[in-house]
Design brief:
477 residues, mainly alpha, Hydantoin permease, two-stranded antiparallel ribbon, globular, membrane, Neurotransmitter:Na+ symporter, NSS family, SNS_sf, YocR/YhdH-like, transmembrane helix
Amino acid sequence: MKETKKENAEKLPRFGGQIGFVLSSAGCAVGLGNLWRFPYLAARDGGGIFVLVYLILAVTFGYTMLMTDIVIGRKTGRSAIGAYENIHRRWKFVGILVFIVPALVMSYYGVIGGWVTKYTALFLTGHIAEATQEGYFTEFITDPGAPAVYGIVFVFLTLLIVLGGVKDGIEKSARIIMPALAVMMLVVSVFALTLYHTDEVTGEVRTALQGLKVYLIPDFRNLTAERFFQILLDAMIQLFFSLGIAMGIMVTYGSYVEKKVDLNRSVNYIEIFDTGIALLAGMIVVPTTFVFYGIEGMTSGPGLLFISLTNVFHTMGNMGTVVGTAFFFTAFFAALTSSVSIYEAVVANCMEIFHVSRKKASIVLFFIYCGTTVLISLGYSIFYFELPLPNGAQGQLLDIIDYFSNSFMMPLVSLLTCILIGWVVGPSFVTEEIEVSGLPFRRKRMYVFMLRYIAPAMMAVLFLQSTGILKMLIGYG
């Protein structure tokens, strides 16, 4: 016999209030992509042009998709699989896809978290010089043992927080970590803007303020229609991944939110926190890298964090050790809060599917993810191989799983969600829930228009681009 909605609601864990929900959700949204991908894209895509496009997308597309995920969770009181089945029985398969995404992401997130843990430990113990030796990062990740050990430590820390539950684990840690992360980012960004460097060969003096200019002031000199489309695509992808859309996380967190919480204000705060951290990261990374290497020194992905910035901090001497330690602490916090959110999404679904306790689901998943962390870390050594991906890149084990979960499944899930809510059950499914607190939904018209027309089109383009189909159709992507 099925439980009634009232019985189910009574058993659900709850956030303590709006602040706890916002900080926990911001912890999900603020991840390593804010620290290493956002600054790189901003520097590559014309500085202020990318930032401007990103901000516009954040208050339109990002707001729409984030609000949709949260409302699905709060209105149904279920995690992904149960939530989509509750909305429409025939669309349960979308909930299954949503569940698969975080399950796959968590399988390799411990590996990346282990890298951050290792470098945080290096800075804490004063071994910054060791970390800057040529080829050190490559030697570390190709070691068959060390990356797995650090990865397991990282997954264990994630487990400890999730075992504490929603209020005493996730929310309590977020109330401490997120303000601390914001303060450290602000302090480091202010310091970064005071830097300057004189080139020993040319005598050229580069200042952080010059780098800030590159970062924030739009460069329209070489802007073509094709380049603007690429900037738009880059900003959309960054925002899509940054907010944790289509991973079931916000659906799960939404199910923990009381009806009295103002979702309008909460979503605004989450976006402000996430975007603010991304902008601060850019204020640290772009000017700092510009000072010591020029704009040509900006690289993407792990190389920016573990090689370029590590060398910059070493060049700065004793002060670099202090600043570098603070920066890697922020990276560690960002990785940990995101990991907790991903892990919680998987745990919550397993609790519903298998009718088990939080403790049992969390511990069983811990051993599973320890296994995947070891396996995927060995993908850089014993199990190393490369395969061509549909987006044109070459990938090994981690890249393949990352591509399938992020570039293939997430845009597909978002597209199907837009169709389900926008056209099958209707936007009123969301708008009525937002207004249940008695407050008006002032952005209703924008939300409905984005949900039914713009967001599905954007998701379709993103899906076609990531799968290589767009390139086959129009020769671009």
